Structure formats: structure tokens, C-alpha cells
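pasting for the record
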Amino acid sequence: MADPKYQDYQLVILRHGESEWNKLNLFTGWRDCRLSDRGVTEARTGGRTLKEAGFEFDVAHTSLLSRALQTLFLAQEELDQLWLPVFKHWRLNERHYGALQGKNKLEAVEKFGEAQVKLWRRSYDVPPPPVELSSPDFPAHDRRYKGVPERDLPRSESLKDVLGRVMPYWEEAILPDLKAGKRVLIAAHGNSLRALLKYLEGVSDRDITEVDLPTGIPKAYRLNAEWRASDAQFLGDPEELQRRINAVKAQTKKA
């Protein structure tokens, strides 16, 4: 039976489950990789949590990266809502980590120092070093971005940059769905969803540096007349929520 306290939540965000590169503690960014076995379980558990709470959706949005696409499919499967219309867009991709992509996070700490790596990872407006236009990591060389103006494709991004590219998609695609009365599920990435969270919850530039999104745990939003958060809460087991948040925080800390 649906939990009545969730009936007026219009929006749910879901960070993808653990990926193979999360497991290896690598900077992933726009590099494509699939979910680990744990990530598959996390995605399914996220969908099951939504089903048990009685969530029903009318439309879903996701990125062009496999880990988010897999997560959405597995969550839909657990929800028994595989029929949902799904819209995929590069603007919901993970933050582009520039020249850090593919690098081990602890090795980056050894090379550049913990303070510098934390600045690149967690600051609001300081991007990592960019990739060259000739680099395979510049998205123009990937055919899934064919047709996207080269000037719009990142070589490296701060969270501020990510917010700048997520917001046009919010305003042009997601917000119209909400205004039409549709219940929306977004499956995406730690930083594209942190950027959206910053906007919805009015988090300051300073405070967003300490906000983490755990893998595979849904966050549900009740939106007000201005389409900002009037209430937001994670769903599921609080202890598991904290464990996954701590796992994200520990990625660049030495044992």
C-alpha cells in the first residue's frame, strides 16, 4: 500500500549505483563505465525503496552515460514501470574532470597534495586542469555528442560550470513536465545532481562543498509554487545512507 505521506512529492533524484570505476577509486567524469555488482544491487534497492513507498512516475530523465542508464532501467524494473517515457541528454552527464579523468584519486593526492585535490573535487568554482582539444577525453571525439556545438562541450568543469549546463535542461525539459503535473524521476550523477540540488534547495556556494549524494539512494522533493524545494528527504535506511555518504567522503583520504 502506498505511504500517504509521499503522495505529493513530484520529483525524485537518484544517483547511479557504484560503478566499476567507483570501485577502483578512479576519477570517471565523462568516461563511460558500467555498474559494479554492488552498483546493480544499489540501483535495484533504490527502485524497490521507491516501490515500497508507493511512488509512481510519469516520465524519467537521465544522462548519456551507461552507469546512469543502467541505474534508471534497474530502478524502473523494480518499480514495474519500464514503460515510462525516458529522455536522455548530455546536459545531465557527470562533471567533466578534465586531465584527472582515469586517474586514481589517492595517487592524485600523492602527486598534487590533499588540499589541491580537495579544491578540484569539492570547490564550487575551481575546475581541474583541462584536456587538450585533441585528447580522446574531449567529448567532440565521441559520436554520442555529434551535433552538440563544440563550444558547449567541456574540457574540464567546476560544479559551477555543471550547474550552468544543467539549468537549461531543467528549464527546457524537466520543468515543463512538472508544470504539466507529471511526476518526474531523474537518474544521473553525483555532480549533475548536486548542482540541481544546490538550485532546488538554495544551498550556498560555500555549503555545497560539504554536500554529498550517496549512490543508489533516492531523494524525494516536494516542490512549491516557485518550483523550489519545500521539503526534501532521502528514502530508505538512515544507517545505510550515512555509510554511503561516508564512502564518498573517504575517496581521497589515506588509510
